[in-house]
Amino acid sequence: MASGKGTGSVTVDDVAAQAGVSIKTVSRVLNNEPNTSEKTRAKVMAAIELLKYQPNPSARRLASKRSDLIMLVYDNPSDNYLINIQQGALDACRRYFYSLLLQPCDYRAEGLAEQIAQAARQRACAGVVLTPPVSDVPALIDALDRGDMPYVRLAPSYPSVKGLEVSTDDRSAARDMTRYLIGLGHRRIGFVAGHPDHGAAHERLRGYCDALAEGGLQVDDSLVEQGLHSFDSGVHCGDRLLDRADRPSAIFAGNDDMAAGVLYAAHARGIKVPDELSVAGYDDTPLSRQTWPKLTTLRQPIRDMAYAAVEQLVSREPQARVRTLGYEIVVRDSTRALD
Q1: Contacts of 308 (CB under 8 A, 6+ apart)
Q2: What CA–CA distance (Å, rounded) separates 106 from 133?
Q3: Which pLDDT tens digit goes with each residue over 162-173?
Q4: CATH pick for 12-62 out of 3.40.50.970, 1.10.3660.10, 1.10.260.40, 1.10.10.10
């Protein structure tokens, strides 16, 4: 049960009086217990915000033998992706009165599994959120399983027995974007694949191939370039595709950073986008609205995925072990129909 006195002078009694509910109801909300309606929770949360009540974290630690920390483990070259992940996780932590511990790492480092598992144990973390490609490191998954440490994997490429998972259907999403480009009349469509160690990158490539086959088009390996989810790799891949004598009329990149790199490569050659080349990205990060022209992209609910991951760890409401969130194509200025 939550402490009657917060870290300030405002008490649970004050919150209950302000919200017009019982002290027990406030305690249920603070402890994320089930059987509390969203309407009641909203009233209590509004009272907490108005009174600036801060729950006593020591009481929760003593009751649960775990801290109020959620550890977010990441190694990803896309700052735009990470900002969305961090914001979604922070939003959920605020709602459930937890703190977020950022844990950067090198997912290829020797001893990574024990390093992360030990850090989580020492901090008595309530749970760990693993982002790709860390979410696909088998040794780390095994170490967390052995230590009985709750964890959620974002966009994993293979299922685990115990862990929670949050993802989108990357294969279907990439297929739909490629279908969209085919529908605009494009037949030579280049693809910039994401980092080969990211499971989602392989699914997006499969979706691209699915749509070409469905449209009666051959997959031309010379139109597929290997990127690394970074802007610089997008420039390099764009250079290779656009220097071809029979260059593609459209390029679909596996994330927005690489798509922005393709735009740079096109501008450097005086190729007009979208008049002479259509470019599409993936993720709908803030970058997609900051490029010129603004990027057509696939909106992956990155922030919602991170929010759902934290919610799976801390909410006492029943949660699905595997959650799949939706996506949508966002059409902007970087694509057009062929004349």
Answers
A1: 92, 166, 323, 325
A2: 10
A3: 889 999 999 999
A4: 1.10.260.40
